[in-house]
Amino acid sequence: MTILWFLFKEGFKGLIRSKYSGAFSIIIIAISIMLVGFGYVIARDTLFMVENIRAQFDVDIFIKQTASRDDIAAFDAKLKKMNEIDHLIYISPEEAAKKFKNEFGEDIFDILDYNPLPPSFTISFKPIYRNLISVEAIANILQSDPVVDELKYRKNFLIILEKYQRIILFTVLGIFAVLTLISIILTSNSIKMTIFARQDIISTMKLIGATNRFIKIPFVIEGTLEGGLGSLVAALIIYGMFYLQNTYFQSFLDYTVVVSYRYYVALLILGTFLGWIGSRRAIRKFLH
Amino acid sequence: MISFINANCTFRKNAGVKNLNFSIEDGEFVFLTGPSGAGKSTILRLIYMDLFPEKGKVLIRDFDSTRIRDREIPFLRRKVGMIFQDYQLLKDRNVYQNVALALYASHYKTREIKSRVYNILNQVGLGHRVHHRPTELSGGEQQRVTIARALVKEPIVLLADEPTGNLDPRVSIELINLLNKINKKGTAVIVATHNYSLIQRVPGARLIQINEGEIISIT
């Protein structure tokens, strides 16, 4: 018990004794955690934005004018049974005429004496089917139905979206991975510098008969504390910046950052973990 | 207690020791003398197993340099006290903490650590300097702290590598008298020095003269 208490005390005191190098280490860890924290939010919201754009994709199915009410009802039932379809809207010729008036400002009956607008369905797909291959396959099935006159969807939109989504995904994940890697290296090196500055302790401890574990534990406790404090500083700064964004710049940038408390907890855990693993790695170098 | 058996150790080009054969018994006072670079420090480093012989072996009680494992070395060092010319004290801790560290490393209980540390600091005449930092002490006082740190764990042998190197003659004599007093209580003392005037201060001490890594004479 005496030893454990002593080692914990040494770890805490070590943080105070390390003074500038310890403070420097905490700042570096805070910067690293901020990089990862901001990187995560940017990556998440960029991918969310792309997915949102994809969610707006829909297909218009125009029904033949000759189709009877029963034919349309049967087709409607068929669509409802399709697992791939997420949402379905039926637009009758009358509703289409209203829509035309809303969009173009003119009544179709003033231009023509009859309503040429056919009944139609607008369908949207479940997220996993919102890709070119699935949409084309479903479109082919629907096109072959005798009541369907024409099917319209923005094929080019899907092609471009898929092409850029892949680029965006890899870029965003790449940046996030690089930021994480940088933060690990920065954290590890800053802790290494803190230990390097106090190598005399290690050599003295060795001379007086301290085991490697006895030497290691206070440094690991100190590194873990530095990680925890660094991530706490980072979490507070991030919280402050998100608060400023959502309070003062939200309307200006038209962007609201939404993060739960779990995000801050994750940052604290990440920083503490980086401090722990970084100090373990660093001290190992000086012990052998 | 300590035996060198055909021990050879060359850790750097033209530095080290060759074919050493000698023994030191419990409670002896031994001076290792010779010019700088003769191999005095190498012998001490071989005793506390900071270096290992390439040929032959060094035995310190049950510890055998050819068989000892890395994790056993701290246990050997708890039985060997060491003092150095540059003191090797931790400047960010006070005298008490520097001395107590040796006992914490040996897993002593807090109450025992306190009584042992105060007792040993009184013995070396530093009872009034307990809360001072090394930087607030004179060279002689710092060296006495290192002696206290080495002795507090009751070692079987005390190794001193040029302990008076940074001290003036008067303090050097005080220090050697202190080491002699410690030896009289039963702890073996091995002092590496090229200060021959110190040797005369300890009548009856053994003398091992070394040059270029070889023993020239042994008494």
Describe the structure.
The complex is a heterodimer of chains A (288) and B (219). Chain A is an alpha+beta fold and 288 residues long. Chain A has helices at residues 2-17, 19-55, 69-81, 93-104, 108-111, 132-143, 155-196, 199-207, 212-253, 261-287; strands at residues 58-63, 85-91, 120-125, 148-152. The longest helix of chain A has 42 residues, at 155-196. Helix content of chain B is 32%, strand content 28%. Chain B has helices spanning 40-47, 73-77, 95-105, 110-123, 139-151, 169-184, 196-199; strands at residues 2-12, 15-24, 29-33, 55-60, 63-64, 80-84, 157-161, 188-193, 206-211, 214-218. In chain B, the strands form 2 sheets. Chain B has a 6-stranded mixed sheet with strand order 6-7-8-3-9-10, with helices on both faces. The two termini of chain B are 17 Å apart. The mean pLDDT of chain B is 88. The chains are: A alpha+beta (288), B alpha/beta (219). At the A-B interface, helix 1 and helix 8 of A face helix 2 and helix 3 of B.
- What is the number of helices of chain B? 7
Question: Radius of gyration of chain B, Cα only, in angstroms?
Answer: 17 Å
Mean pLDDT of chain A: 86
Q: What assembly state would you assign to the polypeptide chains in this entry?
A: heterodimer
Helical proportion of chain B? 25-40%
Q: Gap between N and C termini of chain A, in Å?
A: 27 Å
The structure class of chain A reads alpha+beta
| Strand order in space, largest sheet of chain B | 6-7-8-3-9-10
Which SSEs are present, and which pair or pack?
The complex is a heterodimer of chains A (about 290) and B (about 220).
Chain A: H1 2-17, H2 19-55, E1 58-63, H3 69-81, E2 85-91, H4 93-104, H5 108-111, E3 120-125, H6 132-143, E4 148-152, H7 155-196, H8 199-207, H9 212-253, H10 261-287
Antiparallel strand pairs in A: 1-3, 1-4, 2-3
Helix pairs in contact in A: 1-9, 2-7, 2-9, 2-10, 7-10, 9-10
Chain B: E1 2-12, E2 15-24, E3 29-33, H1 40-47, E4 55-60, E5 63-64, H2 73-77, E6 80-84, H3 95-105, H4 110-123, H5 139-151, E7 157-161, H6 169-184, E8 188-193, H7 196-199, E9 206-211, E10 214-218
Parallel strand pairs in B: 3-8, 3-9, 6-7, 7-8
Antiparallel strand pairs in B: 1-2, 1-4, 4-5, 9-10
Helix pairs in contact in B: 3-4, 3-5, 4-5, 5-6
